[in-house]
Amino acid sequence: MNKAVNLVIQKVANQLDSLTSASTRPSTTASISATNDIDAIKVWLAEFEASPNTFTSYKQCAERFMMWSIGCGLALSNIKREHIQDYQIFLANPHPHELWCGPAVARKNPKWKPFVKGLSNSSIKLNLQILTTMYEYLVQSNYLANNPFKLIKRKSARLSQINKGIERYLTHKEWNYITEYLEKMPKKSAKEQPTYQRTKWIFSLLYLSGCRRSEITNAKMSDFIHKHDQWWLKVVGKGNKYGEVPVPSALLIALIEYRKSLKLPDFPSSIETDIALINNIKYTKGKLRAISDSMLYKIIKKTCHQIADAVKLVDPSAAYVIQKVSTHWLRHTSATHQVDAGIDIRIVKENLRHSMLETTMRYQHTEEDARYRETVDKFGVK
Q1: Which of 152, 181, 216 is the C-terminal boundary of a domain?
Q2: For residue 152, which of 176, 135, 173, 172 has the smallest C-alpha distance?
Q3: Co-location of 177 and 67 in the same domain
Q4: Phi and psi torsions of 224, nearest 5°
């Protein structure tokens, strides 16, 4: 038995090492041409080739599951909820230990094994989340009929979402309403122009950096640093944790525009330690004064209420969401849109400075979005 399982381990490892599908006969119903489980998984993994770290993590998760499944005589289509429970137990303590666990060595080393040791609870949860995503992809492609991983009860996760407000993010359409409104703000008079420039800069900064409100109000212009032909923003976050956030081109353009409105040079310098990232419109003896934390919050709330009023006649659903927006919504929106853009989930984790990858993974809303589209496109249509 152990010898047979060992052969399965080596076979699956070798097959998934190549992304070239051996399948030549396309399926008659599926949206992918794979005709066996290994080839189907290869197609799914190919979606992540542009994100090496995600690809490696997902591949490891998938191959461990396939090794275990084939060793148990199960195909992807045969997996039931009870099998998943068995697999959870197995991940915590792979057995027989000598067959599944070994030292952390290169794959080509004869001593290589799929595991070094049993996984922690958080790692098991992450593996199940990845497998849920894999199964959902294969269901959406019509390769599989159902996703047994969706039966896993996540009561604690749901409560955590409700309590922490993880769903507090804007869709791309809702965010577009905000940017369109900001561009149309009055800007002709001497009073309107600085209000327009500051408001536009606030939304751009919070969205494109993903920073927390306190990180922004405590930062200075000197915290923008230029190194290796790249711009970064230094921040100090929760627990005085230091971080550096990449500055995308759109944020740099917004920064230059805002600085011009303040009659500052285009680019910040290391000597600007007394100039805040966001300044009070009113001047004190010719000097710029920093905006307060509470004022930043009030500006976001007031502006979003105005935007909601402007769009409620054309899109009441979007207006309902936008009127609830606060500063932290823009951080959640930034994280969600970075994930949507295909940025490696581990890079998003570093950009948001999360301590746990699981926190970042909660911004992957694609499965829920697909469920909504499938329902409204096919049910209750007049």
Answers
A1: 152
A2: 135
A3: no
A4: -80, 120
Query: Residue 370 has what pLDDT?
Result: 57
Q: 183 and 128: one domain? A: no
Residue 15: is it exposed, middle or buried by C-beta count within 10 angstroms (0-12/13-18/19+)? middle
Q: What is the pLDDT of residues 335-359, one digit of tens each?
A: 888 887 877 777 888 888 776 555 5
For the domain that residue 13 is a member of, what is the CATH number? 1.10.150.130
Length of the chain: 382
**Does 284 reside within a domain?**
yes
- What pLDDT score does 175 carry? 95
Full residue range of the structural domain in which residue 24 is found: 2-152
Please report whether residue 269 resides in a domain: yes
Nearest to 235 by CA among 280, 258, 205: 205
Same domain, residue pair 136 and 210: no
Structure tokens at 67: 């090794």
State both tokens at 364: 């992957």
Q: Locate tokens 């294969």: which residue?
A: 138
Do β-strands 242-246 and 224-227 pair in parallel, antiparallel, or remain unpaired? unpaired
Instruction: Pick 160 or 202 by higher pLDDT.
Output: 202
Nearest to 235 by CA among 216, 255, 259: 216
Q: Are residues 234 and 113 in the same domain?
A: no
pLDDT of 241-261, one tens digit each? 888 999 999 999 999 999 999
> With contact defined as beta carbons under 8 Å apart, do 260 and 266 qualify?
yes
pLDDT tens by residue, 151-182:
876 544 433 443 444 458 898 999 999 999 99
Same domain assignment for residues 180 and 118: no
Cα–Cα distance between 341 and 96 in angstroms, integer?
42
Respond yes or no on whether the N-terminal peptide bond of residue 96 is cis (omega within 30° of 0): yes
| Element at 107 (helix H, strand E) | none
pLDDT digits (tens, 9 = 90+) for 208-222: 999 988 899 989 999
